[in-house]
Design goal:
Ammonium transporter fold, 16 helices, 66% helix
């Protein structure tokens, strides 16, 4: 997001985030605040109902409601941990590696004396808190696509709470807090290519490996049960992405408008290239393929949206559309890893492409180019390794006291009935 170069003074960095904002920030802008509130709602809609519908249409019928339950429960867990300690660790003053505890329980964010955060000095810190919360929520929700149809609900809740504190919060601090070590190196991530997509992709892949394959994987058909629901969810994701990327300017200005434009161009480039690739590969151009290609373009342009022009967005979206298509077609078949809804092939690969290409295609007339390809690649690889290692450790710790997967008979019956006592289409 390149949030750190927003004129934070040395004095601001020495105090708490709230005190610094009150002392050095410009006046709160009603226009910027309204813009951020709108963008926050758009990003929240990306999870519920966006992710719920997008993922909900792709499992088998017997597991369709399960992904809904897991998304709701995980979102609640991430929200509570974010309010208690996650936000403080990510965005309060601390060390280059982790924030402090001055914002535990959202201390100082509500009331007459509440100020702004140095990263977003023209909006109330409570609005900044909520915008960042929406990012934390959807990042974990993305991971759930890799673990679909086999993880226990209780495990998902504990995993979400621990992961948001131990994995997401430190990475957000590294990249998006002014004193984070990757921010200090100039790492360019406008809206979450590293923090959200590479993080979720690596975590999802690791979780899929730890859980193991679904029973019947590779021998039984596991086709989407309702593509229309998936398309509706994908459309909500596409619309919400404008809040995701353009909102990361933290102001209602020309940079936000530019991010809006580049987001749409990259999405359409990804959709077109994926569709053409699919046509060459199997002679057909599918609805799911077009939508998936658009999402690949959206993922890849996320870190670059506030740095590149239309040409850059076109290149990034096109490369992501082709690369993610190749990965989705080949990854599970070649590795045998049951990443159920292709989280790594889309988010991990797409996020990596966008992060590496951002400095290469960044336009200095839009914003300063603070990183090299090497700097951004280094940041991406470190985040990938940390996310994978953290996810592995958390799941292994949970596995010491509880089974990660549902029982074999429950998996055969389906998680909707076995875990939730509900059916998508009750009979009789």
């Amino acid at each position: 997001m390149n949030r750190w170069p927003l004129m934070v003074t040395a004095g601001a960095l020495c105090g708490t985030a709230g005190q610094a904002a009150a002392a050095t920030s410009p006046a709160i802008s009603g226009g910027d605040t309204a813009w951020m509130l709108i963008c926050t709602v758009l990003v929240l809609l990306m999870t519920m109902p966006g992710i719920i519908l997008f993922y909900g249409g792709m499992p088998r019928t017997k597991n369709a409601l399960s992904i809904v339950a897991h998304t709701i429960a995980a979102s609640a867990a991430v929200t509570l941990t974010w309010a208690i300690i996650g936000y403080s660790l990510a965005f309060s003053a601390g060390t280059p590696w982790i924030g402090g505890l001055s914002r535990m329980f959202a201390e100082g964010l509500v009331g007459a004396n509440a100020g702004a955060h140095p990263v977003a000095p023209t909006v109330p810190e409570s609005a900044f808190f909520m915008f960042q919360l929406a990012f934390a929520v959807i990042t974990f929700a993305i991971i759930l696509g890799a673990t679909a149809e086999r993880m226990r609900l209780g495990v998902t809740v504990v995993f979400a709470a621990l992961w948001s504190v131990l994995v997401y919060a430190p990475i957000a601090h590294w990249v998006w807090h002014p004193t984070g070590w990757l921010a200090s190196l100039g790492h360019m991530d406008f809206a979450g290519g590293t923090v959200v997509h590479i993080n979720a992709g690596a975590s999802g892949l690791t979780a899929a490996i730890v859980l193991g394959r679904r029973r019947g994987f590779g021998s039984e058909p596991m086709l989407p049960h309702n593509l229309l629901i998936t398309v509706l969810g994908g459309g909500l994701l596409w619309a919400g992405w404008f809040g995701f990327n353009a909102g990361s300017a933290f102001e209602a200005n020309s940079r936000a408008a530019g991010a809006l434009l580049t987001t749409q161009v990259a999405a359409c480039a990804g959709a077109m290239i994926w569709g053409l690739s699919e046509h060459v590969h199997r002679g057909q151009w599918s609805v799911l393929g077009s939508l998936t290609g658009a999402i690949a373009g959206l993922i890849a342009v996320t870190p670059a949206s506030g740095y590149v022009d239309v040409y850059g967005a076109l290149v990034i979206g096109s490369v992501a559309g082709l690369a993610c298509f190749v990965c989705v077609v080949n990854f599970k078949a070649r590795t045998g890893i049951d990443d159920a809804l292709d989280v790594f092939a889309l988010h991990g690969v797409g996020g990596l492409i966008g992060t590496v290409m951002t400095p290469l295609l960044a336009n200095s007339r839009i914003a300063p180019v603070t990183a090299s390809v090497w700097t951004n690649t280094l940041g991406a690889l470190v985040v990938m390794a940390y996310a994978a290692g953290g996810t592995w450790l958390i799941l292994r710790m949970i596995g010491l006291v509880a089974s990660l997967r549902v029982a074999a008979d429950q998996e055969r019956v389906g998680l909707d009935i076995a875990q939730h006592g509900e059916m998508l289409s009750p009979k009789g």
